[in-house]
Amino acid sequence: MKRIRYLIGVLLVFALVAAACGDDDGAETPESEPAAETTSSALDAEDVTTTTIAPDSTAPEPEPEPTPGCITESPGAVKIGYLGLPLPGNDELFAAGVDYVNDELGGFCGGNTFEVVTCMSLFTPESTVDCLNQFIAEDVVVATGLTLLFVNPNDLTSARLASFGAAPGSVPEAESVESSTHFFPPSTAFLGAPIAAMGELGFENGGVFFTDNASGQSSAETAAELADGLGVSITPTFFAAAPEVPDWSAKMLTAVASGPDFVGAQILSAPGDCPGFISAAINTPNTPPFLAASCAADAIANAADIAGNYIYSFTILPGDEANAPTDQVANEVGIYRDAVADLPNVAIGGEFGYARDVFGTAINLARAIESLPITEITGDTVYDNLPSAAFDVFMAGPVDCAARPDAGQTGCGTNMWLYEIVADGTFVNLGLLPVLQ
Question: Which helix (H) or strand (E) holds 336?
Fold first, then answer.
């Protein structure tokens, strides 16, 4: 079975190693500084005497070379703004991740801990603007939370407030955000890596669903250009956004009419979207393999009927630990399971597609800040340096924002997995996808 593999920054690493080795092997012993001289008052040069001046022991020593990564002399509480979300388990997951950083890891950057300023978001731009104003008033260093997708990045930029969230931005302004200070990807980029992966698996023509609103229209246009550059053509089909419930059977018939060799859905987040999409894929004649985002619970429930199809997901799925790419990732999957086992409203996998990223938000934020060359953690230092973050994403793999081809042009994001669904109810991990191409 073909596995998708992305080699990020390998040439850069080799170059850095080669440079380091070259410096060590070719270094020359520095010459001693010439001794200071004093001359006698005699006019005859032959009578000139020299005296060596001993170094001044009181002279300040040269400043040491700065050490890469965050170092703070006076660790304390670091305020972060959290956009709460009225979904079962969401806030508990985020709090559990904060507790893990503060209690189990002993903080970050020499003992700093997170202090959370919570503001409940109501899925509207107006409520998130109110929350941003609260965060600014309380001097938080970064905004976090899944509902960052409702935030206009221009508001964040105006406030010089960095953002750190897993979900893609879906407002039209997020499509053209020009700063990876905002650590979440625009939704078209969120779809780009899975489309590229389908291309590597041999698929060439996709029928892809987008929400029927301004954001979906914009995303469809951009995604079509993106897919074309990846050697895959896509034909968009639009479906009604929440709270409306689309007729998925009719939509699937429309999507397959053009003869695609796979069908895909960008984001299926409203109640009923995932079961409707999967049911339509099962029951519509001549439906090709599908690619769905985050429909893990319905994929698990219907695995016997949808074997051979694909999902890309942030959540924990059966077989995740066995298929982990490294021992570190396998260990972190276990940490996640242990941490959330006793949370009353949290299912280990499937019920909430972003579960592991919500739990991992604080851990990833701590790791990101630790990678920054700063000596003080403030809103300004985080805002100015977050685009250079490079760290291991919790339960995923490495991300290096500065090394990306589009560094500084789009938001930097965490990673997700591509799975093939197997009839016995397990999932074959085909590899780690970068959210951004």
Answer: helix 327-340
In order of 81, 141, 145, the CA distances from 137 in angstroms are 11, 11, 18
Return d(Cα 425, Cα 398) in angstroms, integer.
29
Question: What is the C-alpha separation between 327 and 222, in angstroms, rounded?
Answer: 37
Instruction: For residue 201, give both structure tokens.
Output: 């698996």
Separation between Cα atoms, residue 125 and residue 292, nearest integer Å: 26
| DSSP secondary structure of 118-138 | EEE--SSHHHHHHHHHHHHHT
Cα–Cα dist 261/287, whole Å: 9
Residue 236, Cβ neighbours under 10 Å: how many?
18
Mean pLDDT of all residues in 292-310: 84
Grouping H, G, I as helix, E, B as strand and the rest as coil, residue 112 is strand
Select from 219, 234, 153 the least CA-distant residue to 188.
219
Instruction: Report the alpha-carbon distance of residue 209 to residue 302 in Å, rounded.
Output: 21
Domains of the chain in sequence order: 77-185+326-414 (3.40.50.2300), 189-320+419-433 (3.40.50.2300)
Structure tokens belonging to residue 264: 């895909």
- pLDDT computed for residue 26 by the predictor: 40
Which residues partner with 79 through β-bridges?
115
What are φ and ψ of residue 282, in 5° steps? -70, -40
Angle at 195 between CA 314 and CA 391, to 5 degrees: 45
Distance, in Å, from the CA atom of 244 to the CA atom of 151, rounded to the nearest integer, reads: 22
The Cα–Cα gap between 245 and 230 comes to 32
What's the pLDDT score for residue 318? 67
360: closest CA among 165, 143, 210, 159?
165
pTM exceeding the 0.70 threshold for the entire prediction? no
CA angle 212–216–219, rounded 5-degree value:
155
pLDDT of residue 206: 93
